[in-house]
Write a structure and sequence with these properties.
This protein is mainly α and about 260 residues long. The chain is built from 10 helices and no strands. The longest helix has about 30 residues.
Length: about 260
Amino acid sequence: MSAPVQSVTLAVEAGNGGILLWVVLPYVALAVFVLGHVWRYRYDKFGWTTRSSQLYENRLLRIGSPLFHFGILVVLVGHIGGLGIPKSWTEAVGISEHAYHIGAVVLGTVAGVATLGGLAILVYRRRTVGPVFSATTKNDKAMYVSLTATIALGLAATVAANIVGGGYDYRETISPWFRSLFYLRPDPDSMTGAPVLFRLHALSALLLFAAWPFTRLVHMLTAPLGYLTRPYIVYRSRDTRLGTRAPRRGWDRVGS
């Protein structure tokens, strides 16, 4: 990270800036995320959809969609494990810090590349396929920009710190800060010591989560569980004579 960016970041976090970024903003983003979904479900149920465009184009979608969705699933699981599970817990079950670090870096990098590659294909498809582009709203464009920035910053932070650089243990700083928010004992000092790319990744993620309820990303929280319990749909013909007479074999005789 260049010196000007580092200087600007430190200047923003000086004084009460750290409290604003790493205490106030996370709680605001979490509140908007939860209440926004409640509002969206209550007042916009018919808009709670992916607005699928598979009908318009399927070749690129079959490549980009699995790459993106499986990649983002692995990234999400990795973030939950890395941020939510303390280092002492993994060590207690016999996973050394070195083994955890190697696995997290390798799997995270592969998943990040797959996610970003799949997203690139989906964005290319949306931009080059006429009907798909016509169905793209300004809200969709802003969502894609925010999502791409968050994923790219996360991948860049991992590569810069752990592959190009000498390594960085985010479970010593970022993870304690993340858990402290849910303990209601926020610790902003843990974040101010993290590398700039990790902090930018965290800030972009907070903004993405705040915008989440108002985009098509809401479909991630939807599962068709009702299909398991809903009754069978029975189709009946309106022709009451159906089944009581033999089918016709060609033209009927009009007269003798």
